[in-house]
Amino acid sequence: MAAHGTPSAGTHILVVEDEQTIADAIATRLRSEGFNVSVASDGPSAVATDEAERPDLLILDLNLPGFDGLEVCRQVQAKRQVPVIMLTARDDETDMLVGLGVGADDYMTKPFSPRELVARVRALLRRSASTPAPVIGGDPSAGLHVDPSTRRVSVDGAEVHLTPTEFDLVRVLGEAGGAVLSRDQLLAMVWGYRDGSGARTVDSHVRSVRRKLGDDVVRTVHGVGYAFGERG
Ligand code: CA
């Protein structure tokens, strides 16, 4: 079921997966939705294919021959910003990867449906193309400063590197101006999906944002969700 108004023709996706049946299923589904698809089955060929073809999005399995998806993500993101959906075998792998600050924007734990993957791909492509919102924090030299036009974040004038997803999480919470947002709302606003199945992903990214910007940037409202903290 193709989402109306979301162009896929001409959008090029690189699928990196060493399990042939999974790679085939993903590629077939994406092609049927109008995407151009390349497939790589190990770490080194994934990096080489990314460099040669410059795809618009990567679907990247974590456990690969050669070197793993973590290393592929690092090497690719060191050269250019590209949206990445990481495939993992277990939820705790996702937590570990988010904690490491890997540049992936979304995670899916196997097994998943190709239909759900396509929905995540479309959501991520929309998110990557979205237009900037107003700046948070008036004075770049004092406190937390978030500039959506450059996607830069600084604390007391020192720039802090956030992954694209971490940036969007901070931006969305900041724009809510201290109002509490539930995990489901954050999933819809930051990740672009609404089934609530990624609540752990929200928690992992909040932990990662706190580690980089300070604990007081995001406030936990127990039983409800998260809000922008004192710092902003
Ligand atoms: Ca694998």
Describe this structure in words.
This protein has 232 residues and is α/β, with parallel strands linked by helices. It folds into 2 domains: 12-128, Response regulator (Rossmann fold), CATH 3.40.50; 144-228, Arc Repressor Mutant, subunit A, CATH 1.10.10.10. Helix content is 41%, strand content 19%. The chain contains 8 helices and 11 strands. Helix 4 links the parallel strand 4 and strand 5 (106-109). Helix 2 (43-53) packs parallel to helix 3 (69-79) and helix 4 (91-99) runs parallel beside helix 8 (199-213). It is globular and about 50 Å long. Residues 1-5 have low confidence and may be disordered. Calcium ion is lined by residues 18-19, 61, 63-64.
Quick take:
This protein is of the alpha/beta class. It contains 8 helices and 11 strands.
Any key phrases for this structure?
single chain; 232 residues; alpha/beta; Rossmann fold; Arc Repressor Mutant, subunit A; 2 domains; five-stranded parallel beta sheet; three-stranded antiparallel beta sheet; 8 helices; globular; disordered N terminus; binds calcium ion
